[in-house]
């Protein structure tokens, strides 16, 4: 490889020179955009089909799609942005949106709202999730929420009634113990979500708290964490939840969820993942809202952007990128192709256009979101810088408590002090 | 690299008076002198090294003194990163502990297995090339996703290992997801890939003259005495070479832990290799400056380890010729 050092440099110089000379000319006849997203093969097929539709309608624009899995996605994006080679249109996650936005990597979409990015059928409320300080960093691609995935077949075979929306944690615990005892096919009732941040957040919100304040500080304290860890210790001791070495097989993917592994009858995931759960599991999977905390506000859920579409600040073609985002989110034909695979579309028109064409799981997802209002509160403030690291800390400390290396009190102390030190960094 | 640079310099000096009096090499030598000509021929490699290796390495040294989030320009931070690593980073200590455990366990075990298999294969077997290929196979497979999946299956709660144990009445844990055992499954994975040191040992064994063994047998030396008195001492240069190479490799191990733990280094940081921690800091948490400092500390650790090996080598490595 080293031998080609000079050749490579010469080639680079040549390309650079050619780009300098040809830049403005090339820009006029073919506008080349790049779009980057994460996800599965079915998602890639749908996305490429929509890209083709757009290119057909806009022959002067060509869009090159790139897709990778979630775990490689953020490495890829970070290196491309650092190398000043950011894709023009970027699929974003609510957690990372503001990390990129506040560092100046994303274009403010607000100035395009009047015309190019009119987003017909989209309410201002749905845009809130992409906004901070009056700037629009990304547009919601679909609505989802955390959800309980329930193996209905396992419950049926065991002769235990299914958990229902509105059940309390105490009730779900009893059902979980019962199904674990009576079922032949599963050993435990419910996944141990003591290290699963969205479950902790849902529970905190029902107690009138949250993960983070609008100022980017912790919105919970040690006593909350102690109660949470003690609650899950009781779930494990009672046989409702699996022991820690079984739970640790979970790698935050549909494939490694305890339900998919056949270990528990109840797991926790996101509502748009129902499609994936149904594909992987032969058993029937149904969705329920998270259990309620007795005497609480009940409003643990919120309507969460499953993903957002952003435009890079560095793009050569902001107008065309914005126009493509507008098409992707509000065109009814594109919507029919995209289905509810990325969550329930935010545009009223698109939602109504696809409703008659949805299959059973798609409809279940749509109805889950539409029936979520009694259990949903306001959108929490955007997570601060370092939230990703704290999420990882939650997994690790949760495991330390579950494996008995720390008491709930010690775990709570460690989690809060590490989180505070990460936030102050 | 030396194979590319040495021959031209050598032939320019030696052959010029005979046949190359007016050729381009001879002209170059006349113009620049013999060492100048050498540099001309070295230039392609040198340029590649400076631009693609030394340049980025020096840049990372600079970055290690900055605060750099990959998106906004780096800001000078002086010794902050190093001070934090030394005084205020428990995860760093976890990562060092995990990595040292891995190095100290996997390298000796791997070398022992490699030497053992090499000795078995060095008994004039028929079909040696086939056996050699079979034993080398795991190293070729490397740490691919398929191997990681296989490992998860083998060492899961209801995996093959536990089924075997169940046969003798032992109920094993889920090895791969228990913090007490997860690292050892990675050590076994590393040991299993003993192919390249085995090949080198095999070559080394063949260098030992047969008449030494013959003389030892005549004097009535037992097999084990032959091993400790002849084989091992004669092999020490090869052991030394293998130990250095494998140690450096083990320090830099990344893929097995990354794939088997899903990139987290879990459960509870029990498989958080140093390089995995470095990767998380750089690309997961946007701290490229801090990660660069971690990288330089790893370099220093490896350098110290290697220097220590070379210093002690004179006491146990025998070069007969």
Written account of the structure:
- Chain B: It comes from Palleronia marisminoris.
- Chain B: InterPro entries: ABC_transporter_permease (IPR051393), MetI-like (IPR000515), MetI-like_sf (IPR035906).
- The complex is a heterodimer of chains A (425) and B (321).
- Chain A has 425 residues and is α/β, with parallel strands linked by helices.
- Chain A has helices spanning 5-29, 41-57, 70-82, 94-102, 124-127, 152-158, 169-182, 197-206, 222-237, 244-247, 274-280, 318-330, 332-338, 348-354, 360-370, 387-402, 408-423, and strands at 31-38, 61-68, 89-92, 131-132, 135-136, 139-140, 143-144, 146-151, 188-190, 264-270, 285-288, 304-305, 308-311.
- Chain A has a five-stranded mixed sheet with strand order 2-1-3-13-6. In chain A, strands 9-10-8-11 form a four-stranded mixed sheet. In chain A, strands 4-5 form a two-stranded antiparallel ribbon.
- In chain A, 48% of the residues are buried.
- Residues 1-27 of chain A have low confidence and may be disordered.
- The two termini of chain B are 26 Å apart.
- With 321 residues, chain B is mostly helical.
- The model of chain B is unreliable at 1-20 (pLDDT under 50).
- Chain B contains 14 helices and two strands; from the N terminus they run ααββαααααααααααα.
- The longest helix of chain B is centred in the first third of the chain and has 40 residues, at 24-63.
- In chain B, strands 1-2 form a two-stranded antiparallel sheet.
- Chain B has helices at residues 2-15, 24-63, 80-87, 90-121, 128-141, 145-155, 160-167, 182-192, 195-207, 210-218, 223-251, 255-260, 274-284, 288-316, and strands at residues 66-67, 75-76.
- The chains are: A alpha/beta (425), B mainly alpha (321).
- Chains A and B meet through helix 1, helix 3, helix 10 and helix 16 of A and helix 2 and helix 13 of B.
